[in-house]
Structure formats: C-alpha cells, structure tokens
C-alpha cells in the first residue's frame, strides 16, 4: 500500500477534527452572510467598476469555482496526510472572512451581472449579496498557492487562478476592487496564523 494513504489512529483523528472544523466554519459563514445581507447599507463608487462593463459571469463564478473546489478535494484524497493542515487553514480562512463580512455592511454594486435565476434552489440561498469583504474567490485560491508553495506547478496554477477569479468578480461587478486586492494581503496573514496555530497538522502536511 502506498505510504501516502497509510493513516494511523492519531492522524485519522486529526483528519476527522479538520473536517468538522471546515463544516462548522461554513455554517458560521452562512449566518454571517445572512447578517451582512440584511444590514447592507448603500453601494459605493469604485474606480475599476466604473471602467469595466458589467458582464454576466454566472457560469464561471459559480460552476468554475465549484470545479476548483473539486480539484482541491482530489488533491487531498490523493494524499490524506495533507488534509488536516489544508482543511484547518481553510476553516480559519472562512472564519476570519466571516468576521470581516459581519463588520462591513456595504451593499453590492447595482450592476451585479450574475443571473441568479439560473441557480437552483440551494445555490440561491448560499450565494448572498452581502458577503463582500473580502473576496473569497480571490483569497481561497491564493491560500492554496501559499499552502503548495514548494510545488511549483501547483503554486503557479493556484496563483493564476486567484488572479483570474479576481478579474472575474470585478468583471461581473460582484466585488469592489478593495475586496479583491485586500484578499491577497489578508490571506497571507491567515496562512501565517495557520502555521502558528496548527503546528502538528503542518508537520503532517510536510511528510511525504
């Protein structure tokens, strides 16, 4: 049996706890988004949104991001030892982003170019309009780039994906430019916190 798939009991517990962390963070994120959406105030002027035309980016924004998440799952399934650090880092990312979302009540641009009517029942309730700061579509791929920094191809792919999704959310007027550009800096801080808080998981992550 390939060593990367061999998981002992302590590692298995770490994996289970990490999965619970992610699930809990997503639940917290949902209610944070509901809170921010209900209390959204007014849209603001934005330099880049004034320049860029509003383009319908529904397919890429939703289903492109879902495919990206599936790819992440594929990576961790291939090497389960990396799962605890990746998942706990993601959970920390989601929690910190949720806190920022609750602190900022800016309404989205009036020219949001996503066709919500094309979503199914569940997606219409997950994708809310008040969770703007900061951009998860930009920050999440960049977090993966930091996690896989020593793997050149993955690093380049994830970094390019972060830039790509950053452009997509601006093109669709789904985020303000500050949401996108700040995501890189905040995400780097989250990555450093993950290294500090999850040392046991990081050690397991580095084992080949």
TrEMBL record:
SUPFAM superfamilies: Acid phosphatase/Vanadium-dependent haloperoxidase. The keyword Membrane applies. It comes from Candidatus Portnoybacteria bacterium CG_4_9_14_3_um_filter_43_11. The lineage of its organism: Bacteria, Candidatus Portnoyibacteriota. The chain crosses the membrane at residues 12-31, 51-77, 89-107, 127-149, 156-174. InterPro entries: PAP2/HPO_sf, Sphingomyelin_synth-like_dom. Residues 130-193 form the Sphingomyelin synthase-like domain. Keywords: Membrane, Transmembrane, Transmembrane helix. The keyword Transit peptide does not apply. Pfam families: PAP2_C. This is Sphingomyelin synthase-like domain-containing protein.
């Amino acid at each position: 049996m390939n060593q990367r798939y061999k998981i002992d009991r302590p590692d298995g517990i770490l994996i289970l706890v990490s999965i619970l962390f992610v699930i809990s963070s997503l639940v917290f994120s949902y209610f944070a988004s509901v809170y921010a959406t209900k209390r959204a105030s007014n849209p603001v002027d934005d330099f880049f949104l004034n320049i860029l035309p509003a383009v319908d980016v529904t397919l890429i924004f939703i289903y492109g991001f879902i495919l990206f998440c599936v790819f992440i799952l594929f990576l961790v399934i291939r090497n389960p030892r990396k799962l605890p650090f990746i998942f706990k880092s993601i959970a920390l990312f989601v929690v910190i982003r949720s806190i920022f979302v609750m602190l900022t009540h800016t309404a989205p641009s009036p020219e949001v170019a996503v066709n919500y009517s094309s979503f199914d029942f569940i997606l219409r309730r997950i994708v809310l309009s008040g969770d703007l700061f900061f951009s998860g579509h930009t920050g999440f791929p960049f977090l993966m780039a930091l996690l896989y920094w020593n793997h050149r191809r993955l690093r380049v792919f994830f970094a390019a994906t972060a830039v790509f999704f950053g452009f997509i959310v601006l093109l669709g007027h789904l985020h303000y430019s500050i949401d996108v550009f700040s995501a890189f800096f905040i995400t780097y801080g989250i990555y450093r916190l993950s290294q500090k808080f999850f040392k046991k998981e990081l050690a397991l992550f580095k084992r080949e």
